[in-house]
Design goal:
eight-stranded mixed sheet, three-stranded antiparallel sheet, 6 helices, 28% strand, globular
Length: 219
């Protein structure tokens, strides 16, 4: 795997339905190297820290191969990097092969897979489609957030190298499926809650859902 583009943005104002919103989803590619801190890239700031950013979601990575999928689905020609607001556009970042807790080395930094993206309505604004957030969720092609285990710097064209594959984990795609499609799968949600490196944000979603389904084993 290889980094095709590194994308950042400061929060900016946009108009939607006659209302002014602040978002950082319109990320643009940078040239050269960039410094990575334990909460993200220097020069990249999130507009809403309740749902983006922080230690567990320091960077967001997405596969360039998915651009083809969305081009066909949306009848558009998507080729500009940062399509869904990702920090790292990776040539082939397959959610079915990437597991919660896996560790990746890029440049002199070490990253850990933490959770899939949870899309909000702003991605619909970015893609100019009210239906896109649902399509995105149902696809399972959500990309992944990354924790920063070792800070440093990264550059475009850096290789993405597996340092550690987490055994007995669940793939990013599996987590996305039980988040948005297989929503009553008690067995899989129970397993997810026990994953050491899955974020508490996602675990809490599953705990609440399990309680509604009458399963209290995860409490």
């Amino acid at each position: 795997m290889k980094i095709l583009s590194i994308n950042i943005s400061e929060p900016k104002k946009v108009m939607f339905n006659g209302k002014e919103l602040i978002t950082s989803i319109y990320k643009k590619p940078i040239e050269g190297s960039i410094e990575v801190t334990d909460v993200g890239l220097i020069g990249d700031r999130q507009a809403d820290m309740k749902v983006h950013g922080g230690y567990d979601k320091a960077l967001y990575a997405y596969s360039y191969k998915h651009y083809q999928t969305w081009s066909k689905e949306m009848n558009q020609d998507y080729n500009e990097f940062g399509l869904v607001g990702e920090n790292l556009t990776i040539d082939d970042f397959d959610e079915k092969e990437i597991y919660i807790g896996d560790e990746l080395k890029i440049g002199n930094c070490l990253f850990q897979i933490s959770q899939p993206r949870i899309p909000c309505y702003k991605i619909g604004i970015k893609m100019n489609s009210r239906d896109f957030p649902k399509k995105f969720s149902q696809s399972g092609l959500l990309g992944s957030y990354l924790r920063v285990l070792e800070t440093g710097s990264i550059s475009r064209d850096d290789e993405v190298e597996y340092i550690k594959k987490e055994s007995d984990s669940m793939s990013v795609y599996e987590i996305a499926e039980i988040l948005f499609k297989d929503v009553n799968n008690i067995d899989k949600m129970t397993k997810a809650v026990d994953l050491k490196y899955l974020t508490e944000e996602i675990k809490e979603r599953f705990r609440e859902r399990l309680m509604k389904l009458g399963d209290y084993s995860s409490l």
